[in-house]
């Protein structure tokens, strides 16, 4: 199960994501993230409580990245754990995403 806690700051949102992002949780997470993307110009995803991301989760993050970029918005990830950061690096996502402290 993945939980998302939203903190609004004007046109910006910070979303604290907790749990594994895998094929079992991605559909609900994607729906939540894409809905939030409609409302905000800047979205920051706090990955401090995400221990794992699968290819399905990577696809969701890329969809969100594209949606934010298409509307001139900004997507940022922060507090990404080493194991998840390694996945972003191996897949080339590290070069595509705005990851704080990466």
Task: Give a structural overview.
By secondary structure, the protein is of the alpha/beta class. The chain has one domain: Transcription Regulator spoIIAA (2-Layer Sandwich). It contains four helices and five strands. It has helices spanning 26-39, 55-70, 82-91, 93-96; strands spanning 3-9, 12-18, 42-49, 74-78, 98-99. Strand 2 (12-18), helix 1 (26-39) and strand 3 form a beta-alpha-beta unit. Helix 1 packs parallel to helix 2. The termini are far apart. The mean pLDDT is 95.
Q: What spatial order of strands do you see in the largest sheet?
A: 1-2-3-4-5
Strand content: 25-35%
CA-based gyration radius: 12 Å
For the record, give the distance between the C-alpha atoms at the N and C termini, rounded to a whole number.
26 Å
What is the CATH topology?
A: Transcription Regulator spoIIAA
**In CATH's first tier, which class applies?**
Alpha Beta
Write the layout of secondary structure elements.
Layout: E1 3-9, E2 12-18, H1 26-39, E3 42-49, H2 55-70, E4 74-78, H3 82-91, H4 93-96, E5 98-99
Parallel strand pairs: 2-3, 3-4, 4-5
Antiparallel strand pairs: 1-2
Entry summary:
The chain is α/β, with parallel strands linked by helices and 102 residues long. It has helices at 26-39, 55-70, 82-91, 93-96, and strands at 3-9, 12-18, 42-49, 74-78, 98-99. Strand 1 and strand 2 form a beta hairpin.
């Amino acid at each position: 199960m993945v939980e998302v806690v939203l903190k609004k700051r004007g046109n910006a949102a910070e979303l604290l994501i907790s749990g594994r992002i895998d094929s079992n949780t991605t559909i609900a997470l994607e729906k939540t993230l894409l809905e939030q993307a409609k409302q905000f110009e800047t979205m920051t995803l706090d990955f401090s409580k995400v221990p794992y991301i699968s290819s399905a989760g990577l696809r969701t993050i890329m969809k969100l990245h594209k949606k934010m970029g298409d509307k001139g918005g900004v997507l940022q990830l922060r507090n990404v754990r080493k194991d998840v950061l390694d996945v972003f690096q191996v897949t080339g996502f590290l070069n595509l995403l705005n990851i704080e402290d990466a």
